[in-house]
Design brief:
The chain has a domain of about 55 residues: YefM-like domain (YefM-like fold), CATH 3.40.1620.10. A hairpin with a 2-residue loop joins strand 2 and strand 3. About 35% of the residues lie in helices and about 15% in strands. The chain has a three-stranded mixed beta sheet. The termini are far apart. It is elongated, with a radius of gyration of 26 Å. By secondary structure, it is of the alpha+beta class.
Length: about 80
């Protein structure tokens, strides 16, 4: 990751954006301290996307309204487990 001083980043914003798109995230410093990372929007969206939940997976399943009935076979032999 390349580091840019704030003044240089302001003066060369177009070049900074081109480098972000071609090389990846770029660090900007102010008074020698790292303060900002500029990154492509796709990477930002990936980082900030809400986490998928198991309930959402089942709710969006194509089988949700299929009227598929799953019953447990009560006749099947059940194994005892020693815990």
């Amino acid at each position: 990751m390349q580091t840019w001083q704030l003044q240089e980043a302001k003066n060369k914003l177009s070049e900074l954006i081109d480098r972000v798109l071609s090389e990846g995230p770029q660090m900007i410093t102010r008074h020698g301290r790292e303060v900002v990372v500029v990154m492509p929007i796709a990477g930002y969206k990936k980082l900030t996307a809400p986490k998928a939940r198991l309930g959402d997976f089942f709710a969006s399943s194509p089988l949700r309204n299929s009227e598929l009935v799953l019953d447990r076979d009560r006749q099947a032999k059940i194994r005892d487990l020693d815990l």
